[in-house]
Amino acid sequence: MxxxxxxxxxxxxxxxxxxxxxxVIPILxxxxxxxxxxxxxxxxxxxxxxxxxxxxxxxxxxxxxxxVDEQVEVLSLNGDIALDGDxxxxxxxxxLGRRGGSTIGGHVLQATVQPTLEVLLVESPGYLRxxxxxxxxxxxxxxxx
Length: 145
Description:
Helix content: under 10%
Radius of gyration: 15 Å
Shape: flat
Number of domains: 1
Low-confidence stretches: none
Strand content: over 45%
Pfam families: PCC
Number of strands: 9
Largest sheet: 9 strands, mixed
Order of helices and strands: EEHEEEEEEE
InterPro entries: DNA_bp_PD1 (IPR025707), PPC_dom (IPR005175)
CATH class: Alpha Beta
CATH architecture: 2-Layer Sandwich
Protein name: DUF296 domain-containing protein
């Protein structure tokens, strides 16, 4: 993955270009840690060779896993980065386009790039913290933390 800082004030804007084979979520979390990102939002387009999406099953309080084992276009990938304890945590959702024009979407659990993924990330001049929601078991942004 390569990156370039496009703007430093008032909100830092960074372009990240992922390469073939990159595993998006762990690389983005590592980048966030290395660059002390504590409250960011991002959007992306590109393509993936595979992914695993999730649909949150309210009754089970867990994600129903949706494997995507084919080349897909990233029509929309949006998310945020906030602190979960002392480490940055990525939360992302995507709509992926299949050959023939059908789509599939959900929470991004895993995504492998092919050939590229172009991400525009904007860091806010503050921080967001996630706390565990007792009802769902999920780490959710807590604006009071």
